[in-house]
Structures are given as structure tokens and as C-alpha cells.
Amino acid sequence: MRKLLLVILCMVSLGLQAQDSISAIQQPKKKSWLRRVVEGFTYIDTNYVEPQHYDWSVMVQGIYNYDYYRLSSVTENHQSITFAPTPALKVGPYFGWRWAFFGYTFDLRHVDLSSNSKKFDFSFYSAQIGADIYYRRTGSDYKIRNVKLGGNIDADALENASFDGINVGITGVNVYYIFNHKRFSYPAAFNQSSCQKLSCGSWMVGLGYLRNSIEFDADRLQRLIDERLGRQDIQLDSALMFNSVKYHDINVSVGYGYNWVFARNWLLAGSLSLALAYKKTYSELSEEGSKRFNIRDFNISNVNIDGVGRFGLVWNNTRWYAGLSAIVRAYNYKKERFAANNIFGSLNIYAGYNFGAKKEYRKKKTKK
């Protein structure tokens, strides 16, 4: 009897061990939290989006930067001055690994070592999250594009006049979340790391921070007005007589984007986001302006509407690709006596070639 019980116990023990071994084989190895997070951000529905087939890419890209700044007084004697630098076209080679591209562009118009213009724009696009980082410092090549001095004053003589009395600095970051990220692909439109197979759209929400500064020489502009118009009786409005304006902008945005696949390998994309922005501003008036109205008019906190638009046209067959894309940003500040509107962005034209197939796609080709 004892021997029989020992045999039964041994058989049960072996059976339990075998069951544990089978369970261990059947249950997949638990993924690390980091891998689960990465897969969550990059997961896509392959019925709608075709993943990138290659690890490496070479590309030639042309970048056309533009800037537009408008200062205006919100008074009975409404005046406004619009400034914009001469647009610059830069072209250069880029080398990419997966989603990261590195390169350098050359200004085809001229190489001006004396200019202090600096522009840096970086955009990151994943299936679920996107981010923009930008740093812009204008140079001394602004020109007056449009002038309104109130009444029936003819100010055409000021248009296209060079004016180095304004410097604008913008530093900002935006982060946004794409709701329908499994089927809608921002990367397909803006960094060619995937291909949109079927038309689809998505809502998105975002958070952003912006720091903007304007250094303005109102006295120099007044002298230019006197010189070009040949009159001494035309005066800038007191609301425009300041030395600097600086504000911090915290915003919450809501937007919608749509990818239209109108033909095989072709994609037309567009999105628009509007932001409710809270701005805290500090300004310092010039000596002449301080005699005319209270500096407290500029020490304000207010709410405005800002906007970001993205547009793209792409042809991509996973090996070769070409297209153009544009990003336009609009920031507005307005109070009782003074308003500033800034529109800036870039237009990119590119063509490239992918190579170095990923492991899973090398296997598929071998089978074929």
C-alpha cells in the first residue's frame, strides 16, 4: 500500500511539473513597461497605414522661410506698420535613419555673415504624439511692406524701405495628441516614415508654450517717415512709441487633420489647430511715448486666439518619395490701444530615396 501511494504521489508531482512546463511554453514572455509604451505610441492599423520598409534614407530638401510682423494702434487715429524680411531659399542634403534626419542647407540668395538671423525648427511625428520646437531670431534685413498712418495720408513712399530698427525673437514648444492614431498618419504626410493607404482623419488636442519679444526703435521709424514723406507733421501714434514688448504665451489647442489618398502612392494632407492662449506681457515705453500715456496699458495679461496650419502633398512608393509641405503659425496679441500679429513658417520641397530594408521586409522579399 505504501509503495502504491508513493507511486501515485510521484505521478501527480510529475503531472503538475509537466502542466507548469506546458503553461510556461504557452504563455508569452511578459513585455517590459518600456516596450509596451513604445508599441503603444507606434501601433498602427496596417489596413490604413503602411509602415516604413527601410532603415536608411538620403534626401535633398529646399526650405523657404517666411516672416510677417504687423504692429498697429487700436485708437481713433488707427495706424499700422507691416514688416517682413526678404524671403530666403535654402537647399541642402539630408541623411536619415528611420525617423531622424540630419543635414545642412545653404542660402542660395546670399551668404551674409553680418546678419544675426537664426532659425531652428524641429518637428517630431509619431503615430500617437507629435511635438514642435522652434527658435527664431530675426536679422537686420526687415523691410516695410505696408503702412497706414491714418486719415488720407499717402504712405506709399515708405513701402519696401529697409528698416533695421526691429528685432523679433520667438522660442516655443508644442505637444499634441492624435486620437485616431491607429488609422491617421501624420508621419505619412510630414516625414515619410509611413504611407497612408486609405483616406482618414483625426481630432487632436495640444499644449504649448511660447516666449515672444519685440525690440523696436520707434524714433528711427519716425525719422524715416519724416525723410521719405517730406513732412514733419505726421507723428506715430503714442501706442506705437515703445522700446520693447515681451510676452509669455501658454495655450491649449484643438484641431482636426485629414489625409486624402486621391491616387495610388499619392497623399494630400491638411490640418488646422486653434489655440486659446493666455499671454502675460511686459513692455517698456520710449521716452517720448511715456509722456503720452500710462505704461500700465502695456503691463497686462490677456487671452487671444492663435493658430497652426499644416499642409502637405506627397508621392511615396516606399522606395522613392517626393513632395512639399508647409507649416504656418499665427500668433496674436491685442489690448485696448496696441496690437501685434505675427505669422511665420516654412515651405519644404524635397525628394529622397530609402534603402537598407528592415529585417521583416527582407524576409518577405526572400520568400517571393
Describe, in plain words, how this protein is organized in 3D.
Helix content is 18%, strand content 53%. The chain is of the alpha+beta class and 368 residues long. The strands form 2 sheets. The protein has a 15-stranded antiparallel beta sheet that branches. The chain has a two-stranded antiparallel ribbon with strand order 1-11. Strand 2 (54-73) and strand 3 form a beta hairpin. The longest helix has 25 residues, at 2-26. Mean pLDDT is 79; it is low at 1-27 and 288-300.
Q: How are the secondary structure elements laid out?
A:
Elements: H1 2-26, H2 33-42, E1 49-51, E2 54-73, E3 80-85, E4 88-97, E5 100-103, E6 106-107, E7 118-125, E8 129-137, E9 142-148, E10 166-178, H3 186-190, E11 194-196, E12 200-216, H4 218-229, E13 242-263, E14 266-285, H5 287-290, E15 300-316, E16 320-334, E17 338-357, H6 359-367
Antiparallel strand pairs: 1-11, 2-3, 2-4, 2-17, 3-9, 4-5, 4-6, 7-8, 8-10, 10-12, 12-13, 13-14, 14-15, 15-16, 16-17
Helical/strand content category = alpha+beta
Low-pLDDT runs of 5+ residues are 1-27, 288-300
Order of helices and strands: HHEEEEEEEEEEHEEHEEHEEEH
Shape type: elongated
Largest sheet: 15 strands, antiparallel
Mean pLDDT comes to: 79
Rg of Cα set: 29 Å
Portion of residues within helices: 10-25%
Brief summary of the model shown:
This protein is 18% helix and 53% strand.
Which structural traits does this protein have?
368 residues; alpha+beta; 15-stranded antiparallel beta sheet; two-stranded antiparallel ribbon; 6 helices; disordered N terminus
